[in-house]
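Risk register update: the risk of archive-format incompatibility is retired. Evidence:
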Amino acid sequence: MYHLRRGKGSILFLVRFNPCNVNKFPRSRSRSPDNGPPPIRRRSFSPPAPRRIVDLPKVEDVDPVRRVERERQLAARMAAVELEKAEDKKGDTKKKEFDAVAEFAKLTSSRSGGVYMPPARLRALQAAAAQDRSSAEYQRLSWDALRKSITGIVNRVNVSNIKHVVPELFSENLIKGRGLFARSIMKAQAASLPFTPVFAALVSIINTKLPMVGELLLHRLISQFRRAFKRNDKTVCHSTTTFIAHLVNQGVAHELIALQILVLLLERPTDDSIEIAVGFTREVGAFLHENSPKANATVFERFRAVLNEGNISHRVQYMIEVLMQVRKDKYKDNPILPEGLDLVEEEEQITHEVQLEEDLKVEEGLNIFKFDPNYLENEEKYKAIKADILGEGSSSDEESESEESDSEGDEAVPEKEGIEDRTEMNIVNLRRVIYLTIMNALNYEEAVHKLLKVQLKEGEEIELVNMVIECCSQERSYSTFYGLTSERFCKLNRVWNESYEKAFETYYETIHRYETNRLRNIARLFGHLLANDAISWVVLQSIKMNEDDTTSSSRIFVKIMMQEVIESMGLPTLKERFADPEIKPLCTGMFPLDNPKNTRFSINYFTSIGLGALTEEMREHLKNAPRLIMEQRRAMLEAESSSSDSSSDTDSSSDITSSDSDANSASEDSRDRNRRRRSPSLPRHSRRDSLRRGRDESRTPSPSHRPRRDDSRTPSPPRSRRDDDRRDDPRSGYGRDRRESPARYRKRNDSTSRSPPRGRYERERSSPRESARDRDYDRRRDDSRDRYRDRRR
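Archived output:
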């Protein structure tokens, strides 16, 4: 027998158990206590045991050595756990401080557009990172903001707003972001060449205050031109030379660089080089004609030589001839400075003389972020430069002095109260803001997020809802963007839900004003909201499906809306939804049961649009409508008879009973006839006897007193089975006679087995005397028909 034994180092050994060795290791046992007091023992004064910090659970083990070892290991583990908890408590505050910073550092290190960050959380991270303005995270944040600001300002500059854009551009740190500015303006100019004079004028203004920015831009343009010329990139060469030409016109670059470029292009003429040289000369020719006439004449001599050599294509030769004509016209279409862009005085302009072949300082490192250990100092220096450029200090002093003088000299003008704007310009501006927000959103989540930021007064929620619906209707085809946007609004707050329900009622009432495409988009939008339970189905109360309350537009609207709901929910689910006891009372207008005419109209409409499954209840109601109308009529007549005389009471009761007997007799005749057709045939002799008996009974004289209506429609005598067989047998003459009977009799017999004709309801609405007269006529006609049948038999 073996058992496990633990050795040193928590190693288990398999030891063979020998029962003979049990007595070799006797276990010491404590004696049981006697009745007397325990003996007095002399104890040594040992130092007090240290307090146990951790309460260890009791370890039970038979082996004392193993128990001690397990207790020691458990104590070590518990002590380690307690130490970790204590360290965690100490580091909680530090962790809380550095969590936001670490997360923001992770966010800024990623590429822009990688992860969407809610604005509230982003502001919290920015606030956490802004606590230390000298940190790398804060500098990265300011760098991104600087890049976006410079790019936005450059992209929206034009002739009309350049004077307002320049102060905004100077308010940014252009010394730190001069690389960003040069890159942004070069990209903008390459994308829109007609705006090159505007960009050159902007650079000339900045160059007067910050020459390093103009010099860096000029170096980069020349470097870009050299690379594009070596690579034979015609497009980049054309855009770069155009920008350099306008910089020369503005006085930022010297005319020497223009002449060097022309010499390079005309040295080895090709079609592309001559085309670029012609375009460059048209832009800078007027400036060279005024400032360097000899050099300009030399350039045109070279053009004439190239034209005489004839080594270029006819298209390029024609371009040279056009350039000669432009020179004769004194560049009237290409002035040096266009109108509205002569913004810098000549004595203030700083011109950079840069050679085409010299070493250029492109400084590509300025395009990327770098940590600045002296960030705060450099920011303070640029603030001083900005104040000097914009004159902020002197202007503020002058304004304060003027305000003091005005306050002393003039009395305060009381403000007018109660001014009300009835032009509704605020509504127009609100709609413009909502429209632009919707059009600029990339997806519905961004649209909802931005629209919720729009400041709305109480009661203006419906304007936002109407604008969303109108934008949806203006699309060529329905876009789920608007459906998802509306659904998100409805599920955010009950106010939006009620606004959309109100909009449904309004648009349904005025849907006839919209053309088919807009109507379709609006219907699909509301169908999406109904299918996703974004709005309550209570809105269906406004739909009255009958001929009087609907138009062709409203019927098309309901059709498209229901098709959208079926596409999302499915027909079985929609049927269950309409059968819901809570929704069923709301749809009484769509599925009317009050008037058979409206019921038939609703059945035909929903069947035509593929929703016949929803009309089963209306069909059952329409089938039972005659009986229900008769019961209602009888109840009305009984109520009238109770207040009338006894004679009129008996007449009305007889009329009602006769009408009831007519319907009952007709139904019983049809049932008996069907029952006899289904019954099995009898033997021949029994059929003959039954036939004779039926004839005898049919020829019995009628009693003297015949009721008005009841006896006329009483069931005919039962036919024998032989008659039934003869009628069913195609070889018998009876069946042929019945099939060849006149159409008027066949029509009358068929009408008795069906529901009462429509004219019957009209007769019931007539006076009692007229109805009694009609019943007498019907009785006499039925008697004559019965006699005719007997004769034929």
